[in-house]
Design goal:
43 residues, mainly alpha, 0% strand
């Protein structure tokens, strides 16, 4: 029982971290895309 609870907790923590990393990565990509678009449109 204890092992199952621990396993679920680890999975939940891992999912939270993955979602945070993914959200941060997409934010960075959007920022870079916006900069690139500004450069292209600006010329």
């Amino acid at each position: 029982m204890y092992a199952a609870v621990m396993d679920n907790t680890i999975t939940a923590v891992f999912l939270c971290l993955s979602m945070n990393v993914y959200a941060h990565a997409t934010r960075e990509v959007k920022k870079k895309s916006a900069k690139l678009l500004d450069m292209v449109v600006g010329q």
